[in-house]
C-alpha cells in the first residue's frame, strides 16, 4: 500500500522526527505506485503554484513555504518557519532508493530556516 501524505509544521518531511505524524493534515492511500506518484505530482504542482519557495528530494518528499508563515516558539525563543509538505510512502516507510526519482530533486530556496533546536 502507498500513502501520499500532506503535512503542515515546523520541519521538512525528511526529518521523520519521533512525533512527525502529529503534523499530518491528510492521507490518501493507493494500491498502485504509479497512481500514487501521479497524485503526488498533482499535489506538487498545486503547491508550487501557491507557495514561492520549495525544496524537493528524489526520495519523493517536498516542502513548500512562504516567509510570512512562521510561528513563535517559546521554548527556543525564536520564530520557526512553517512548511506545507507532501510525501509518497510505502507502508508508512520511505520509498526504497531504487524507486527514487532523481528529477524530483529540485530547490528554489537558499539558506537554512529556523528550526526548533530542542526537537532535533
Automatic annotation (TrEMBL):
Q: Pfam families, from UniProt? A: DUF1033
Cite the InterPro entries for this sequence. Answer: DUF1033 (IPR010434)
Can you name this protein? DUF1033 family protein
